[in-house]
Amino acid sequence: MKRTIFLFLVSCLVANGACVARGTWAPQDKSEKGKAPKNQTAVPSAQNSQPDAGYKIGAQDVLQIDVWKEPEITRSVPVRPDGKITLPLLNDVQAAGLTPMELAGVIRDELKKYVNEPQVSVSVSSINSRRVYVTGEVTRPGAFPLLPGMTVLQALTSGGGFTQFAKIKNIYVLRTQDGRQVKLPFNYKAVVGGKKPEDNVLLQPGDTIVVP
Predict the structure, then answer these.
(1) Which residues of the chain are modeled with pLDDT < 50?
(2) Sheet of 75-78: strands edge to edge?
(3) Which residues on neighbouring strands pair with residue 123, listed in sequence order?
(4) Domain ranges across the chain
């Protein structure tokens, strides 16, 4: 009888060991409950919109000039209508037409006359040189920032909608090309209906959308 009970207990222990070895039973670590897997990728948060590396600085843009360990030079400066900025020690520096990285190089080279191994960075804190204009029979006419890839249809939404007198089939874009002004037709009703997608052109700086 004792031998039978002993063999029964041994068989139970062997069976439990097999379950643990196969991974069919294991104690749960409650401290990990509800936590995301360690290899889970976090969703990136939205970042502020910044111009790309090839962006050319223009008049009326606002630039942030940072010079390491030189607080008297570090500052926010507007680009004047003549395309230049004014900085201590350097006076006027041409900015319009350059990328932020190119301008940082120009400032760095000029500062070498006064500062030992200057480290300069330039960023565009406000883009004011790239604008389009919406005028005519819209509820909110005015100048609006030209966003990358902006089309006529997208720009019209900035105007707040049409008035009751708007002739939406006769809208046009005024653009200066090669020193002369050209008119690009835009039939709102046809574009929205998918009939004239070619009218919905990409806008360029200085374009004026006229809603008669």
Answers:
(1) 2, 4-10, 12-49
(2) 75-78, 62-67, 120-126
(3) 64
(4) 62-126, 131-211
Strand pairing class (208-211; 131-136): parallel
Alpha-carbon distance values, 107 to 67, 71, 96, 144, 200 (Å):
9, 15, 13, 31, 41
Helix (H, G, I), strand (E, B) or coil at 124: strand
Q: What is the pLDDT of residues 146-158, one digit of tens each?
A: 888 899 999 999 8
pLDDT the model gives residue 50: 58
pLDDT of residue 26: 40
Class of domain 62-126: alpha beta
Question: Which tokens belong to 131?
Answer: 């604008």
Q: Which two tokens stand for residue 17?
A: 């060991």
Identify whether the C-beta of residue 196 lies closer than 8 Å to the C-beta of residue 122: no
| Structure tokens that stand for 82 in this block | 């003549």
Q: Is 189 helix (H, G, I), strand (E, B) or coil?
A: helix
Class of domain 131-211 (CATH, top level): alpha beta
